[in-house]
Amino acid sequence: CRAVILISGSGSNLQAFLDAAADDACGYTVEAVISNKADAYGLTRAKNAGVDTEVLSHRDFTDRESFDEAMVEVIDAYRPDLVILAGFMRILTPGFVRHYSGRLLNIHPSLLPKYQGLHTHQRALEAGDREHGATVHFVTEELDGGPPILQAAVPIESGDTAETLAQRVLVQEHRIYPLAASWFAQGRLRMVDDRVELDGELL
Ligand code: GRF
Protein backbone atom coordinates (compact mmCIF):
# COMPACT_ATOMS: atom_id res chain seq x y z
CA CYS A 1 0.00 0.00 0.00
CA ARG A 2 1.55 3.26 -1.22
CA ALA A 3 0.96 6.18 1.16
CA VAL A 4 1.44 9.92 0.58
CA ILE A 5 1.45 12.09 3.70
CA LEU A 6 0.42 15.77 3.81
CA ILE A 7 1.81 18.07 6.51
CA SER A 8 1.98 21.72 7.48
CA GLY A 9 4.09 21.70 10.64
CA SER A 10 6.28 19.76 13.03
CA GLY A 11 5.25 16.36 11.64
CA SER A 12 5.29 14.38 14.88
CA ASN A 13 2.52 12.19 13.42
CA LEU A 14 4.59 11.88 10.23
CA GLN A 15 7.51 10.70 12.36
CA ALA A 16 5.29 8.00 13.87
CA PHE A 17 4.45 6.78 10.33
CA LEU A 18 8.12 6.87 9.27
CA ASP A 19 9.09 4.87 12.36
CA ALA A 20 6.29 2.34 11.76
CA ALA A 21 7.14 2.04 8.04
CA ALA A 22 10.65 0.88 8.98
CA ASP A 23 8.96 -2.46 9.66
CA ASP A 24 7.47 -3.94 6.45
CA ALA A 25 4.78 -5.61 8.58
CA CYS A 26 3.00 -2.22 8.74
CA GLY A 27 1.74 -2.89 5.20
CA TYR A 28 2.49 0.52 3.71
CA THR A 29 5.38 2.51 2.27
CA VAL A 30 5.65 6.29 2.63
CA GLU A 31 6.18 7.36 -0.98
CA ALA A 32 6.22 11.14 -0.46
CA VAL A 33 5.64 13.92 2.05
CA ILE A 34 3.93 17.06 0.78
CA SER A 35 3.75 20.31 2.72
CA ASN A 36 2.01 23.62 2.07
CA LYS A 37 4.64 25.30 4.26
CA ALA A 38 8.27 25.40 3.11
CA ASP A 39 9.48 25.72 6.71
CA ALA A 40 7.59 22.72 8.09
CA TYR A 41 9.98 20.72 10.25
CA GLY A 42 8.26 17.57 8.98
CA LEU A 43 10.11 18.10 5.68
CA THR A 44 13.38 17.63 7.54
CA ARG A 45 12.02 14.45 9.13
CA ALA A 46 11.13 13.13 5.65
CA LYS A 47 14.54 13.97 4.20
CA ASN A 48 16.27 12.31 7.15
CA ALA A 49 14.25 9.19 6.32
CA GLY A 50 15.12 9.38 2.60
CA VAL A 51 11.52 10.10 1.59
CA ASP A 52 10.72 12.39 -1.35
CA THR A 53 9.32 15.80 -0.40
CA GLU A 54 7.30 18.43 -2.26
CA VAL A 55 6.23 21.91 -1.20
CA LEU A 56 3.18 23.63 -2.64
CA SER A 57 2.50 27.03 -1.18
CA HIS A 58 -1.15 28.01 -1.32
CA ARG A 59 0.05 31.59 -1.73
CA ASP A 60 1.20 30.68 -5.27
CA PHE A 61 -2.39 29.97 -6.30
CA THR A 62 -5.27 32.35 -6.89
CA ASP A 63 -7.94 30.19 -5.27
CA ARG A 64 -8.56 27.06 -3.24
CA GLU A 65 -9.65 25.00 -6.25
CA SER A 66 -6.51 25.68 -8.29
CA PHE A 67 -4.30 24.89 -5.27
CA ASP A 68 -6.12 21.61 -4.67
CA GLU A 69 -5.93 20.69 -8.39
CA ALA A 70 -2.16 21.27 -8.30
CA MET A 71 -1.90 19.13 -5.16
CA VAL A 72 -3.83 16.30 -6.85
CA GLU A 73 -1.39 16.33 -9.76
CA VAL A 74 1.63 16.22 -7.44
CA ILE A 75 0.11 13.55 -5.20
CA ASP A 76 -1.11 11.31 -8.06
CA ALA A 77 2.38 11.25 -9.58
CA TYR A 78 3.20 8.96 -6.61
CA ARG A 79 0.28 6.63 -7.39
CA PRO A 80 -1.05 6.59 -3.79
CA ASP A 81 -3.40 3.93 -2.45
CA LEU A 82 -3.79 6.05 0.70
CA VAL A 83 -3.46 9.79 1.39
CA ILE A 84 -2.82 10.71 5.03
CA LEU A 85 -3.41 14.21 6.48
CA ALA A 86 -0.99 14.58 9.40
CA GLY A 87 -1.16 18.04 10.90
CA PHE A 88 -2.21 19.38 7.51
CA MET A 89 -3.79 22.72 8.33
CA ARG A 90 -5.81 23.54 5.23
CA ILE A 91 -9.48 23.02 4.50
CA LEU A 92 -9.80 20.85 1.39
CA THR A 93 -12.24 21.47 -1.46
CA PRO A 94 -15.07 19.01 -2.14
CA GLY A 95 -13.36 18.13 -5.44
CA PHE A 96 -10.16 17.06 -3.64
CA VAL A 97 -12.09 15.06 -1.04
CA ARG A 98 -14.19 13.33 -3.73
CA HIS A 99 -11.06 12.46 -5.73
CA TYR A 100 -9.60 10.59 -2.74
CA SER A 101 -12.86 9.50 -1.17
CA GLY A 102 -12.46 6.30 0.82
CA ARG A 103 -8.66 6.51 0.88
CA LEU A 104 -8.16 9.86 2.68
CA LEU A 105 -7.50 9.84 6.45
CA ASN A 106 -7.18 12.56 9.07
CA ILE A 107 -6.49 12.74 12.77
CA HIS A 108 -8.27 15.30 14.91
CA PRO A 109 -7.19 16.12 18.49
CA SER A 110 -10.55 15.58 20.18
CA LEU A 111 -13.06 12.81 20.88
CA LEU A 112 -15.22 13.59 17.84
CA PRO A 113 -18.00 14.56 17.44
CA LYS A 114 -16.97 16.83 20.33
CA TYR A 115 -14.86 19.91 19.48
CA GLN A 116 -14.71 19.96 15.71
CA GLY A 117 -12.47 22.81 14.50
CA LEU A 118 -9.53 24.43 16.27
CA HIS A 119 -8.18 24.96 19.83
CA THR A 120 -9.67 21.65 20.96
CA HIS A 121 -7.49 21.22 24.07
CA GLN A 122 -8.30 24.70 25.40
CA ARG A 123 -12.02 24.11 24.76
CA ALA A 124 -11.99 20.79 26.62
CA LEU A 125 -10.24 22.44 29.58
CA GLU A 126 -12.68 25.36 29.61
CA ALA A 127 -15.61 22.94 29.50
CA GLY A 128 -14.26 21.22 32.59
CA ASP A 129 -14.14 17.84 30.81
CA ARG A 130 -12.59 14.94 32.73
CA GLU A 131 -11.24 13.33 29.57
CA HIS A 132 -10.11 14.32 26.10
CA GLY A 133 -8.40 12.51 23.22
CA ALA A 134 -7.92 12.03 19.49
CA THR A 135 -9.90 10.56 16.60
CA VAL A 136 -8.74 9.01 13.33
CA HIS A 137 -11.43 9.35 10.69
CA PHE A 138 -12.05 9.11 6.96
CA VAL A 139 -12.22 12.59 5.44
CA THR A 140 -15.56 13.60 3.95
CA GLU A 141 -16.78 16.97 2.72
CA GLU A 142 -17.85 17.88 6.26
CA LEU A 143 -14.87 19.42 8.09
CA ASP A 144 -13.81 17.06 10.93
CA GLY A 145 -17.09 15.27 10.28
CA GLY A 146 -15.99 12.03 8.67
CA PRO A 147 -16.86 8.66 10.23
CA PRO A 148 -14.55 7.82 13.15
CA ILE A 149 -12.29 4.79 12.73
CA LEU A 150 -10.33 4.75 15.99
CA GLN A 151 -10.29 6.93 19.10
CA ALA A 152 -8.01 7.16 22.14
CA ALA A 153 -8.99 8.91 25.37
CA VAL A 154 -6.68 10.49 27.94
CA PRO A 155 -7.55 11.84 31.40
CA ILE A 156 -7.50 15.58 31.97
CA GLU A 157 -5.38 16.15 35.07
CA SER A 158 -5.79 19.06 37.50
CA GLY A 159 -3.33 21.78 36.58
CA ASP A 160 -3.31 20.75 32.92
CA THR A 161 -2.68 23.48 30.40
CA ALA A 162 -3.52 23.25 26.68
CA GLU A 163 0.15 22.36 26.14
CA THR A 164 0.38 19.57 28.74
CA LEU A 165 -2.91 18.15 27.50
CA ALA A 166 -1.81 18.36 23.85
CA GLN A 167 1.35 16.45 24.66
CA ARG A 168 -0.62 13.68 26.40
CA VAL A 169 -2.98 13.48 23.39
CA LEU A 170 -0.12 13.42 20.89
CA VAL A 171 1.32 10.28 22.51
CA GLN A 172 -1.97 8.55 21.71
CA GLU A 173 -2.14 10.06 18.22
CA HIS A 174 1.24 8.51 17.40
CA ARG A 175 -0.11 5.12 18.49
CA ILE A 176 -3.56 5.04 16.84
CA TYR A 177 -2.82 6.75 13.54
CA PRO A 178 -0.22 4.25 12.20
CA LEU A 179 -2.46 1.44 13.50
CA ALA A 180 -5.46 2.69 11.49
CA ALA A 181 -3.23 3.03 8.38
CA SER A 182 -2.10 -0.58 8.82
CA TRP A 183 -5.72 -1.74 9.08
CA PHE A 184 -6.39 0.06 5.79
CA ALA A 185 -3.25 -1.40 4.16
CA GLN A 186 -4.30 -4.89 5.23
CA GLY A 187 -7.69 -4.43 3.57
CA ARG A 188 -9.54 -4.63 6.90
CA LEU A 189 -10.85 -1.06 6.79
CA ARG A 190 -12.98 0.72 4.24
CA MET A 191 -15.55 3.49 3.96
CA VAL A 192 -18.96 2.46 2.66
CA ASP A 193 -21.50 5.28 2.13
CA ASP A 194 -19.71 7.49 4.68
CA ARG A 195 -19.74 4.63 7.19
CA VAL A 196 -16.65 2.77 8.45
CA GLU A 197 -16.52 -0.96 7.83
CA LEU A 198 -13.86 -2.85 9.80
CA ASP A 199 -13.47 -6.60 9.19
CA GLY A 200 -16.84 -6.58 7.43
CA GLU A 201 -18.66 -4.96 10.38
CA LEU A 202 -20.12 -1.44 10.13
CA LEU A 203 -18.79 0.57 13.09
C1 GRF B 1 -1.77 17.54 16.24
O1 GRF B 1 -2.50 18.10 17.31
C2 GRF B 1 -2.74 16.74 15.41
O2 GRF B 1 -3.81 16.24 16.16
C3 GRF B 1 -3.24 17.73 14.43
O3 GRF B 1 -2.10 18.51 14.11
C4 GRF B 1 -1.32 18.66 15.30
C5 GRF B 1 0.15 18.65 15.00
O4 GRF B 1 0.46 17.40 14.44
N1 GRF B 1 -3.79 17.05 13.28
P1 GRF B 1 1.98 17.06 13.95
O5 GRF B 1 2.87 17.09 15.16
O6 GRF B 1 2.38 18.10 12.93
O7 GRF B 1 1.85 15.68 13.39
TrEMBL record:
Binding site for N(1)-(5-phospho-beta-D-ribosyl)glycinamide: G11, S12, N13
Entries under CDD domains matching the protein: FMT_core_GART (cd08645)
Stretches assigned to the Formyl transferase N-terminal domain: 2-180
Pathway info: Purine metabolism; IMP biosynthesis via de novo pathway; N(2)-formyl-N(1)-(5-phospho-D-ribosyl)glycinamide from N(1)-(5-phospho-D-ribosyl)glycinamide (10-formyl THF route): step 1/1
EC number(s) on file: 2.1.2.2
Enzyme class, UniProt record, top EC level: transferase
Annotated positions binding (6R)-10-formyltetrahydrofolate: R64, M89, R90, I91, L92, N106
Entry keyword set: Purine biosynthesis, Transferase
Residues of the active site: H108
Annotated site (Raises pKa of active site His): D144
Reaction(s) the record says it catalyses: N(1)-(5-phospho-beta-D-ribosyl)glycinamide + (6R)-10-formyltetrahydrofolate = N(2)-formyl-N(1)-(5-phospho-beta-D-ribosyl)glycinamide + (6S)-5,6,7,8-tetrahydrofolate + H(+)
GO MF annotation terms: phosphoribosylglycinamide formyltransferase activity
Family from the record: Belongs to the GART family.
The protein's role, per its UniProt record: Catalyzes the transfer of a formyl group from 10-formyltetrahydrofolate to 5-phospho-ribosyl-glycinamide (GAR), producing 5-phospho-ribosyl-N-formylglycinamide (FGAR) and tetrahydrofolate.
Protein name: Phosphoribosylglycinamide formyltransferase
Lineage: Bacteria, Pseudomonadati, Pseudomonadota, Gammaproteobacteria, Cellvibrionales
This protein's encoding gene: purN
